[in-house]
Amino acid sequence: MISDADQDNADQDNVQHTVDPADRCVVHLYHATTSTQAPGAIEQCCAQWLAPSEIERANQFRRLTNRNQHVVGRGMARRLLGDVNVAPEQIEFDQGTNGKPYVVAPDAAKQPFNIAHTDGLVVCGLGNAPIDLVGVDVERLSRRTSTELAERYFSEPEVRYVRSKPTEEQREAFLKVWTLKESFIKAIGTGLQTPLADFAFREIDSGRPVIEMLSPALRSPHYWQFFSVSPRPGYVGAIAVAMQVPPANLDVSLRCFDDMVTIS
């Protein structure tokens, strides 16, 4: 969805620059379980695709949970970005100013992607053309939250949304907002350098929330769409997708990565 601030530009360009309905745009969200102890089958499989620098980085984590999440996240991205002509280990990454990874080679593997993880689960989102940016986030529903945290980090409309829910539903409401906001700042690659109160979400329970840019600095020619998802029971996630043309047909595909890997 596009923000109200960008509607005027969208109206001017809508006729000439829409995506052909036949060109189906899809953002795939793959999810995988990770071990909290010794590496399991999926960690061993993903590790064989990593570059030495990625292995070195993984070994710097003190907690096995964090190490395993790093290995699976990077391995998953390599496996999904590759195809019949590109082996996972051939892909070369670099990262932006704030650490968001992107593919530098080969050209066949260049497509927008993003990785997120929480205890026991890793997700990787990928988009096909003409998608420009993808951001994802995921949280376990058991994570501790509070209305005080909402007041600290959220915009006023989002705080009202959380407070409007019955007490037993406020945690999930908080995490819906949190993952949506994280998915956006991860998509644009700024991380928490972008204040979370500089933008707001509405229609949060619609399945396709709408973003409103409260800071002029965040306005851009991109058209944004957001999705709240539940990749697995006990988790809530969000996907942010940016395009330079209004999407005529944008779908989300949830897929289990565990079934795709084997030990060679």
Automatic annotation (TrEMBL):
E.C. code: 2.7.8.-
GO BP, sorted A to Z: lysine biosynthetic process via aminoadipic acid
InterPro entries (UniProt xref): 4-PPantetheinyl_Trfase_dom, 4-PPantetheinyl_Trfase_dom_sf, AASDHPPT_N, P-Pant_transferase_sf
Keyword set, alphabetical order: Transferase
Matching Pfam families: AASDHPPT_N (PF22624), ACPS (PF01648)
Record keyword Nucleus present: no
Top enzyme class: transferase
Stretches assigned to the 4'-phosphopantetheinyl transferase N-terminal domain: 47-123
A single GO cellular-component term on record: cytosol
Record carries keyword Transferase: yes
GO MF entries: holo-[acyl-carrier-protein] synthase activity; magnesium ion binding
Domain 4'-phosphopantetheinyl transferase: 134-220
The family this protein is said to belong to: Belongs to the P-Pant transferase superfamily. Gsp/Sfp/HetI/AcpT family.
Descriptive protein name: 4'-phosphopantetheinyl transferase sfp
Gene name of the encoded protein: sfp
